[in-house]
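Study this fold:
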Amino acid sequence: MFGGLGVGELVIIVILLLLLFGAKRIPQIARGLGEGIRNFKSDVKEPDRLSEGEDSQSDNEGGRA
């Protein structure tokens, strides 16, 4: 199914996650993971935006010193 994992293995993983983190914490973890992946994808798609922001920050810092 998922990289060689069957249904039984997935059920065991889900049970372990519930025991370790609790039912209330798992959606928060998944939401944070999703936001991180989304940010990573947007940064990969727009590398010029990131490098331009760094250049403008270094110019501002040079003027202050």
Remarks:
- DSSP finds three helices and no strands in the chain.
- The chain has a mean pLDDT of 79.
- The two ends are 58 Å apart (CA to CA).
